[in-house]
Design brief:
Helix 3 crosses helix 11 and helix 6 runs parallel beside helix 8. The protein has a single domain, classed as Rossmann fold (3-Layer(aba) Sandwich), CATH 3.40.50.1110. A four-stranded parallel β-sheet has the order 1-4-5-6, sandwiched between helices. A two-stranded antiparallel sheet has the order 2-3. A hairpin with a 5-residue loop joins strand 2 and strand 3. Helices cover 37% and strands 7% of the residues.
Length: 344
């Protein structure tokens, strides 16, 4: 749509100028929220847990908010809605904020939060091998291996009062290419993720949630592809099977709480109206004609397809969940955690 890029570039330029002014004064850039809880009331989960998160845009609580907020965005959903990791944090009496945020020079600046997940991140492949919104954020996202290393370099270890959330692999699937050659790529990513989970266990974490990848073939992006999403569905399955095998081989399945997001999303799509949605995977909440770059990162109420689109649509853009779907996924995770014997 003519004028969209000019508008977002002008807005981003304006916020960059303000950020430069702030940096000149020696200040730091931050987004709302911190890593603690006021403790004013017992958490809904019945226990208080500190949340640590690793992954990609599905779990990113605001790494790019200092720039994206210029157009009302900030997270990869229907802003100002939260992503599931933040919902889970609230449930257990915590507030999850980004470990890093982007600064005026398109570099990551440490913020002290425990949300290490970053939009665009793969499991192990360096960001500079891919182009992900490079004109907005550059190539700066940390792979999950580096996210965990960064956490350990800063904090030393995990502790029994923490709940560690791990959801990664979707970008590896999306960027793997076509079968059969792509199979090895996603298998390697899955086994690497299992190794990362092992590293988290070895460094003291006792409460770990590991979600497999959803059926990416059933996203709006998937069903709009030439094969109707068949390749992405198969790659999602290969990743998940490989992850299960690797977790079992490494003796980790009994040490983590596994979340089957693949089956869950399939079921939600099949019964979308019963789950409170008006639109399943056939359209998106963020109007591509109004939303800069057609990405949920830059989506705001002013770019919604309809009023209350954050509640009526399953997907914000062609890949990312809208606010209500994030909230429902958070409830699934909380229920699975309770079944493991932790909280209620």
């Amino acid at each position: 749509m003519p004028g969209i890029n000019d508008k977002v570039c002008a807005a981003i330029s304006a916020v960059l100028i303000s950020l430069l002014a702030a940096c000149g004064g020696g200040g730091t850039i931050s987004v709302s929220g911190g890593s603690g809880s006021s403790g004013a009331a017992p958490p809904a989960g019945g226990i208080h847990l500190q949340i640590v998160s690793f992954g990609d845009s599905l779990s990113d609580g605001g790494t790019y908010a200092p720039i994206a907020s210029a157009v009302g965005g900030g997270r990869f959903t229907t802003n100002p809605g939260q992503v599931w990791t933040q919902d889970v944090a609230q449930y257990y009496g915590d507030t999850l904020s980004p470990a890093f945020t982007i600064d005026a020079t398109h570099k990551l600046s440490a913020q002290g939060g425990l949300g290490y997940a970053e939009g665009g991140a793969t499991i192990a492949t360096p960001a500079n091998l891919y182009d992900f919104l490079t004109d907005v954020i550059g190539n700066i996202e940390m792979p999950v291996t580096q996210q965990v290393s960064s956490y350990l370099a800063t904090h030393g270890s995990f502790n029994p009062n923490q709940l560690v959330l791990v959801w990664a692999g979707s970008n590896d699937v999306l960027r793997a290419g076509a079968l059969p050659a792509a199979a090895q790529t996603v298998q390697t990513a899955a086994t690497t993720l299992a190794q990362v989970v092992g590293q988290i266990v070895q460094n003291g974490a006792t409460h770990i949630v590991v979600a497999n990848v959803p059926n990416i073939g059933l996203t709006p992006k998937g069903i709009a592809s030439a094969d109707g999403g068949a390749n992405l569905t198969q790659l999602s399955q290969i990743f998940n099977n490989s992850l299960n095998t690797a977790l079992q081989a490494n003796g980790l399945q009994g040490k983590v709480i596994q979340i089957d997001s693949y089956t869950w999303v399939n079921q939600i799509i099949a019964n979308f109206q019963a789950n409170g949605f008006a639109v399943s995977n056939t359209s998106v909440a963020c109007d591509p004609g109004k939303t800069p770059h057609a990405t949920a990162l830059l989506c705001s109420p002013g770019t919604y397809a309809t009023a209350n689109a954050d509640q009526m649509y399953m997907f914000a853009d062609d890949l990312h969940p809208a606010t209500r779907l994030h909230a429902l996924f958070a409830q699934l995770v909380e229920q699975q955690i309770a079944k493991s014997g932790l909280g209620h």
